[in-house]
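User: Some background: our group keeps a shared notebook of sequences we're curious about, and every so often someone picks one and asks for a predicted structure to add to the entry. Today it's my turn. The entry only has the sequence so far, pasted here. Could you supply the structure so I can complete it?
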Amino acid sequence: MISNAGARFQSLSAPWADTTTQSGKMMMTIFAGIAEFELDLKRERTGAGRADVQKRGVRFGRPE
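Assistant: Of course. Here's the predicted structure to add to the notebook entry:
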């Protein structure tokens, strides 16, 4: 882990974003979870959109 190497994050303007405190670690973990959830939603929507377009005959990639 990064913290085992002695790295930490401490914001001067946002006291909640401080990985040296338990509450700061919790907040950063929550935000990381939300970001991962959003990324999964984007992948799902993009995949569904690509599949829909391919069903209509659109081809992706380099023209042959």
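Suggested note for the entry: The two ends are 47 Å apart (CA to CA). The mean pLDDT is 88.
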